[in-house]
Amino acid sequence: MEKQVKLAVRGLSKAFDDGARRVEALTDIDLEIRQSEFVMIVGPSGCGKTTLINIIGGLETASAGEVLLDGHPVSGPGADRGMVFQGYSLFPWLTVEKNVEFGLKMKKLPTAQRREIAQRYIELVGLKGFEQALPKQLSGGMKQRVAIARTLANEPEVLLMDEPFGALDAQTRVVMQELLADISRRTGTTILFITHDIDEAVLLGDRIYVMSRRPGRVREMLTVDLPEPRSHKSLVLPEFLRIKARIMDMLWQESSDAAMDR
């Protein structure tokens, strides 16, 4: 049986006024994510990917259209949507454990319950033994694991991720991709993930929305049917390469049209 739609974007547009002119960032975006689905958005630089995820997260408002979570309109930030950014946004004076507990403390959960939940998610992201470490003692990949654990500990309905691995080196990035794929399978978390990395999009996504150049719109939606579990070995599968080539062709066309001002 097909899973229900968890998150839907209907007819969404966004325009900015910079004083001298009106800039159309997004136009008539429609997309949907089903329960426990891992959906990727990829597109050329400046196509409005971050603007879109900020609107879904309630950090910006749309000029037109709506965002629906479980059929209810989204009108601002909420604990039902957890966000992970490229910057780790950890509190440097707090330990790994206390960083993960932070949102739980804001909810006024008892100390013992906070510690139990934090420990569970610290283990989930592979940081058992680092509970008392400070962020300055961690590598970039480890800091991002803490950020993911902190967000998941609040048990959001949807996890929104904006280029979370963009600042990592290539090898660490692949390790983090495999970790996130494993977390997705084990927790059933619904994930919307923004990236400019085509390999990352194909490796992680159940479906991929490819966006056009500005004003951003959905150019095409692709379904990814790769064997599970996915890993770095998936990068050379014929189906992986076929989908990658298709996305590359679309993005090349968008860049070419932009250069020729078509």
The description of the largest β-sheet is: 6 strands, mixed
Shape: globular
Q: Separation of termini?
A: 43 Å
Number of DSSP strands?
Answer: 10
Residues in helix, %: 25-40%
Structural class comes to alpha/beta
Mean pLDDT: 92
Pick out the low-confidence regions: none
Topology order in helix (H) and strand (E) letters: EEEHEEEHHHEHEHEEH
Portion in beta strands: 15-25%
What layout of secondary structure does this protein have?
Layout: E1 5-17, E2 22-34, E3 38-42, H1 49-56, E4 64-69, E5 72-73, E6 81-84, H2 96-106, H3 111-124, H4 140-153, E7 158-162, H5 170-187, E8 190-195, H6 198-204, E9 207-211, E10 218-223, H7 238-259
Parallel strand pairs: 3-8, 3-9, 6-7, 7-8
Antiparallel strand pairs: 1-2, 1-4, 4-5, 9-10
Helix pairs in contact: 2-3, 2-4, 3-4, 6-7
Describe the structure in brief:
With 262 residues, this protein is of the alpha/beta class. The protein has helices at residues 49-56, 96-106, 111-124, 140-153, 170-187, 198-204, 238-259, and strands at residues 5-17, 22-34, 38-42, 64-69, 72-73, 81-84, 158-162, 190-195, 207-211, 218-223.
